[in-house]
Design a protein that fits this description.
There is one protein chain. The protein is α/β, with parallel strands linked by helices. The protein has two domains: 11-212, Vaccinia Virus protein VP39 (Rossmann fold), CATH 3.40.50; 223-296, Orthogonal Bundle (Helicase, Ruva Protein, domain 3). Helices cover 41% and strands 17% of the residues. The protein contains twelve helices and nine strands. It has a seven-stranded mixed β-sheet, sandwiched between helices. Helix 6 (135-144) runs parallel beside helix 8 and helix 9 crosses helix 12.
Amino acid sequence: MAGPRPVLGNSRNTIEILNKYRFVFQKKYGQNFLIDSHVLDKIIEAADITEEDYVVEIGPGIGTMTQYLAAAAGGVTAIEIDRALIPILKDTLSGYRNIEILNEDVLKVDLKQLADKKNNGRPIKIVANLPYYITTPIIMGLFEKHVPVSSITVMVQKEVAERMQAGPGTKDYGALSLAVQYYALPYIAANVPPNCFIPRPGVGSAVIRLNVYEQPPVRAEDEGLLFSIIRASFNQRRKTLQNGLSHVPELGISKELTVRILEEMELPVSVRGEALTLKQFVTFSNLAGWYRNTQMT
């Protein structure tokens, strides 16, 4: 153990700390603090935290999960945007010697540089109870900036977790599913009801772990083009792929080119984007890029 036993995983101690500091919840930050020690244990177990790991926690709140992380990990950096929570964190985490607290907006932090500095360039682990409104920007930012991360274990809105894990042809399958699955293998570790938080959110939550690939199983020659095609394909789900792509002129993919590529891939020309697998989207993107470049030269 790297510090004292965690004490914040229950409602009584949490309320005591909140009252002590007269803390006022900020709706703009989407603050919901965990008050269930069983859920906290599940998060640590799902993240597979050991003393060999360096962990970055996004949004530590009053330090509830941070205590659990610090007790299990070699080191922790907790990044909290709300200045009012910093004195509370310094109090609740005072018994731990392996924690650094940063009062920053995580979207403005150079996490790659932080990982290099704190863990000698070796992959870190991300653990977070993420505000619902900012889940996607944070996760996609980690992927797109190629931060050295081995896994991301996060509490998110249940329906968002289901979208991340969804496969082709299902109602939850979409651009987020494909973006996450290009970079990582997702699995839902636990469902968490609203009564596990203060204040109670209006929807259920889920803990999802994303095992980040060292190399994507399928590689797009132009990731920007791939994700532009994916977004265009799901902007209007009921449209065929050729109609969806032709309505985004900046892609430069005409109906004729879409039909040509689909025929080359032995797919029906009436296919919708929601029916394509990640591998098929990558193949389509690579062929589209090749044809566009050939026409330009």
